[in-house]
Amino acid sequence: MPDKRLPFDGTRVLADLNTLRGIGAYKTGVHKPTFSQAHMRSVEWLVQRLSEAGLTGAIDGIGNVIGISAKSGPKLLAGSHLESQNYAGWLDGPLGVVYALEAARVINPDLSTNGAVEVAAWCDEEGHFGSFLGSRSYVGAITEADIDTARDRSGGKTMREALRDVGLAGRPRTMAERGRYIGYLEAHIEQGRTLESSGLAIGVVTSIVGIWQYRITFSGEQNHAGTTRMDVRKDAGVALARFCVAIDDRFPELSGPRTVWTTGRIALDPGAPSIIPGQAEMLFQIRDDDPGVIDRLENQLRSMAAEVSAHGRCGVAVERLRTGAPAMMDVRFQQTIEAASLAFAGGRSIRMPSGAGHDAQVLATIMPAGMLFVPSIGGISHHWSENTDDADIVTGAQVFVETSRRLLAG
Ligand code: GLV
Ligand code: MN
Ligand code: MN
Question: May I ask the CATH class of domain 210-322?
């Protein structure tokens, strides 16, 4: 039952999300890599909306925006991200930013609610330049040297060049003011099928998975594809393909119930039909919420690489590129989301872990954090066809606003 006290506006939420979808549109989704024109226009759009909502916020030196309220009392930080994966979905990120904006628009002018919602859009959650660079900058986990070495994984532009090109070079980075917030709340599409397949409206996130990423490089011998006999080849591409299959054979017995692993990119060098690849590289990711499982799998990966190097035709090197500790969501935040779901979603909620990474796991290192999910149609995400029913988007927004109000009320 909608609460008549709140001037909540579901139509406005849908309109804002569709406006953001129109910036950098690609089929029914968007193409908004970090610091692209479409990303920056989306961030500028947000700065305008924040100002209309009575919040002051500017884009900082790493591309984050945080809208600050002058209202007294407790503050809740809420948000998500505005860039997308390449040629991907319209809701991964913007949903959480627009929900936070709506919560600020509804709650901050309401003098019967003590305190205010402040709105954040974290830059580069999707990892075009690194790993959660925006939110990690805010919590003080990024150095200038980290920014010096960051480079766009698709275009090769350095982060320094990208910051200069969008006019952010030299701007200060906003750092968290310790003790300012009662916590951080983020909404997101589920990006899986749990909610849809059970007819549920809200996922109450209990933990967020840790993400470990590796570059695995195979060194063989580049040679002519017509004149080099099969028995003397040192084909780095074949070594890589065998390694991928061996991972799938050996990992299951060492995994936990929710461990997942992915080879997301393969590059053969030089990558021509008439040349035996002398080098091959794969980007490999493991996710789990138990660091012990990751340790076991990483050891397995390294011993498989040593085995191939010692007995195979090619050398294999494993380089760890990224680690991310899993995060637990705050128990009071979980209870409050559940109570708000009871009031606005008929109690159709379930507690669940997140297999996707989110800025909330970074914010959780410095303050209590919570997350809620809304259903994803067909469980599809990181693809332009990603979608959620309008009715589910609106229900999720109501639950988000109500959760924010209850958290601030204490
Ligand atoms: C975030 O987008 C992730 O890849 O989990
Ligand atoms: Mn996201
Ligand atoms: Mn994503």
Answer: alpha beta
